[in-house]
Amino acid sequence: MRRLAWVGLVASAFAGLVGPAPEGRTQTRAPGEKKEPAPTTEKILMRDKLTYAKDALDGLSVEDFGKIAKSAEMLRMISKASSWYVFDSDEYQHLSKNFQEQASDMGRHAKDKNLDAAALDYMRISLTCVQCHKYVRQERAKTKP
Questions:
Q1: Which percentage of the chain shows pLDDT scores above 70?
Q2: H-helix or E-strand containing 89?
Q3: Is 138 exposed, middle or buried (0-12, 13-18, 19+ CB in 10 A)?
Q4: CA-CA distance, 145 to 134, in Å (whole number)?
Q5: DSSP 8-class letter at 7
Q6: Domains of the chain, CATH where assigned
Q7: Distance from CA of residue 74 to its chain's centroid?
């Protein structure tokens, strides 16, 4: 117990010595290092979509049906966002519609507390993601000079 208290005291003292960075001070970059551009709406939505997919998997792992249902609804809503559409093609529309239906199915199965069906829906969603990303990469490769 004394050792734990000692470690806590040392950590507190160190934090007090170091303290927060002074205001107005910016992080320096190495010479020649490029500043990363601000993320696009598409990237932000994709990051959020990935976060909710991870949350769904977490919910499936611990049988948290509320978490699964919430994640499924958010995935469906993100996919329906108008700014989400990358290509105006029948194939892309088909993949998007599949994703939205699969997310709805996962949410319904979560509400029914059917873990096996929700897990299968999660696998279908994952497969659709892979297929869609493959399609988008192929289409973008066609338009590059």
A1: 74
A2: none
A3: exposed
A4: 19
A5: H
A6: 41-80+87-143 (1.20.120.10)
A7: 11
Residue 84 scores a pLDDT above 90: no
Tokens 């892979």 belong to 130
Angle at 115 between CA 111 and CA 116, to 5 degrees: 130
Q: What is the residue whose two structure tokens read 């929700």?
A: 118
pLDDT given for residue 41 in this prediction: 81
**Amino acid code (one letter) for 47:** R
> At which residue do the structure tokens 């869609």 appear?
132
124 near 79, Cβ under 8 Å?
no
User: What's the rounded Cα separation, in Å, for the pair 106 and 79?
Assistant: 14
The answer to whether the beta carbons of residues 34 and 99 sit under 8 Å apart is no
Mention every residue, 6+ apart, whose C-beta is less than 8 A from residue 6: none
- Helix/strand/coil for 114: coil
The string of pLDDT tens digits covering residues 12-23 is: 433 443 444 444
Q: In which residue are the tokens 């490769």 written?
A: 141
In angstroms and rounded to an integer, the radius of gyration of the C-alpha atoms of the chain is 22
Q: Answer whether residue 53 shows pLDDT above 80.
A: yes
